[in-house]
C-alpha cells in the first residue's frame, strides 16, 4: 500500500529529528542515515494500514535504533573488534535517556553544509539527510543518473565521518552556507536549469519546508526570515508561470488572479518585520523586490523606481553578475532600454543564456529587431531548459522579417 500524502508529510517532518537523535547517540552518520531510511520505509509500509502510532517520532527512533545497532553489531562481529562494541555499549548507556532535541534539524543542516563539501555535495546530502528524499528522487530532480548521485552522497558522507554532531562553535559563520544551500535548492525547483519542465514544485516545496524549520528554530534572525519571505513571494506566482502546455509565461503577461495571495501576505509580513529591525541583508532586499512585484495590481502599476533603489542597495551588498543583470533590467524600466543596454556592456558571458536573453528583450524594446532576434537565438542555443528554449525561439520567430 502506498503511503498517503499525510503520512509522507509526517515522515519528512520527523526524519531529521530521528536522524539527529541517532547520530547524537551512536555517531556513525552514514550508518545512522541508512537505518533511518529503513525505518521510514517500514513506516510507509505499515502506517497506512495499521494506523499512525501515538508517538510517531518515538516509533521511528526505536525502529531505526534497532536497525542501527543490529548493523553495527554485525559489522563488529565481522571485524572481530570487541573493544568497539564495548565502547558503543558505554556510549549508548550514557545517552540513551536523552530525548531528541528540536534543533536536531539545524544541527543536521550544519553538518550537511560542512565547509569541506562542495555546494553540489551540500545540496545532495541536505536533501537526503534532512529532506528525507531518496537518492533516486534527488537524482531525478537534478537529472543525473542515480549511480552518479549515489556516489556524490557517499563521498559527502565520507567527508563528514567523525565530525562532531551539534551546532559547531562557529555556527553563526556557517549559517550563510546553510541559507545558500536552501536558496540553491529552491532556485532549481523554481526554474529548473535543464529538462522538459520549467518548474520542479516538489523541490521548491522542500526548500520552503526546510527554511520554515530553520526559521522556527532561529526566529530572530532577519536573513532567515528574509529568505523564507523571498521563497514564499516567488513561489506565489508558480501557477501563472506556465501555460496549459507547460510553456513559459513571462512576468508581465501572467494572470495575476492566479497568484497565491495567502503566500504573498505571509511573505510581505515576514519581510516587513525583518526590515523594521534595520539589519537589512541580501535575502531581505531580494524579498522586498519580490514584494513590490507581487503587490502591483498590474505590470503598468509596478513601482520600478522603488525596485531600482532596492537593486542599488543589493548590488552594494552583493555585487554579483546576476544581481547586476537584474539591476540593468530595472534601469531600463526607469530610464529606457538604451540605458539598460549600457549597463549590460560591463557584464561578462559567464551568465550563460541570461545575458543574451535580457539583451534581446532590451533591444526589442529599443526597436533594434534584427539584433534582438540574434540575441534571442543565441540565448536559446545556450539554455538546457526546453521551456526556456521554446520561449526564446518564439520571441526570435516573431521578429523575423
Short structural summary:
The protein has 401 residues and is mostly helical. It is 71% helix and 1% strand.
Describe this structure in words.
Helices cover 71% and strands 1% of the residues. The protein is mainly α and 401 residues long. A two-stranded parallel ribbon has the order 1-2. Helix 9 packs antiparallel against helix 10 and helix 17 packs antiparallel against helix 18 (369-382). The radius of gyration is 24 Å and the shape is elongated.
Instruction: Report, as a whole number of angstroms, the end-to-end distance.
Output: 58 Å
Give the overall average pLDDT: 86
The percent range for strand residues is: under 5%
Question: How much helix is in the residues?
Answer: over 70%
Largest sheet descriptor: 2 strands, parallel
Question: What are the key terms here?
Answer:
elongated; mainly alpha; two-stranded parallel ribbon; 401 residues
Per-chain topology:
Elements: H1 5-26, H2 29-50, H3 56-79, H4 82-95, H5 104-112, H6 119-130, H7 135-141, H8 146-160, H9 171-190, E1 194-195, H10 201-217, H11 222-235, H12 261-276, H13 282-295, H14 304-317, H15 321-335, H16 337-344, H17 353-365, H18 369-382, E2 384-385, H19 386-398
Parallel strand pairs: 1-2
Helix pairs in contact: 1-2, 1-3, 1-5, 2-3, 5-6, 6-8, 6-9, 7-8, 9-10, 9-11, 10-11, 11-12, 11-13, 12-13, 13-14, 14-15, 15-16, 16-17, 17-18, 18-19
